[in-house]
Amino acid sequence: MPALREALEESGYDDVRTYVQSGNVVLSSTASAKQASRDIERLIADRFGLEIAVVARTRSELAKVVQGNPLGRVAKDPKRYQVSFLETKPSAKTIRELEAVAAAEEEVVSIGREIYAWHPDGVARSKLWAKLAGKNLGTTATSRNWTTVTKLLELADAD
Q1: What burial class does residue 61 get, using C-beta atoms within 10 Å of its C-beta: 0-12 exposed, 13-18 middle, 19+ buried?
Q2: What is the pTM for the complete model shown?
Q3: What is the C-alpha end-to-end distance of the chain, expressed in Å?
Q4: Which DSSP string corresponds to 5-32?
Q5: d(Cα 49, Cα 146) in Å, to the nearest integer?
Q6: Are 139 and 90 contacting, i.e. CB atoms less than 8 angstroms apart?
Q7: In which band, very low, low, confident or very high, does the pLDDT at 159 lie, cut at 50, 70 and 90?
Q8: Domains along the chain?
Q9: If you count Cβ atoms within 10 Å of the first and of the last residue's Cβ in the chain, which end, N or C, has fewer?
Q10: CB contact set of 145 (below 8 Å; sequence gap of 6+)
């Protein structure tokens, strides 16, 4: 992450901060989130030789994800509560497939380009989590637990 942070700063991004070792970056840019995603994908490929899909949200989009928390009434353990950030809105068929594999105690809600998923028994044996983590959502996606989501917003607000 220090090397990524340095590469981003050298490429002209400001206020670059990282959180844990799983590719969480908060930065300032005049580019749109979509353009920044593409530019950062190229940077990672050029600098590190890795083909990594990047999904980005603006500070205001991330704030809406947190404020719109549809499962806050039941999702009491932030490490078992996941938000999947998708590049494009999932199809109705994809949402039906997710709902079909969710265990009785799990909950899944799709709002725009985010899918919120509550896994009260953890993700280890969750068929819902396996589908969310797979490559068959029909779009590029990345998931973060609620602790990480709220920490990223906190970092975005720390100026």
Answers
A1: middle
A2: 0.93
A3: 20
A4: HHHHHHTT-EEEEEETTTTEEEEE-SS-
A5: 30
A6: yes
A7: low
A8: 2-48 (3.30.70.1280), 63-157 (3.30.70)
A9: C
A10: 78, 79, 80, 81, 82, 83
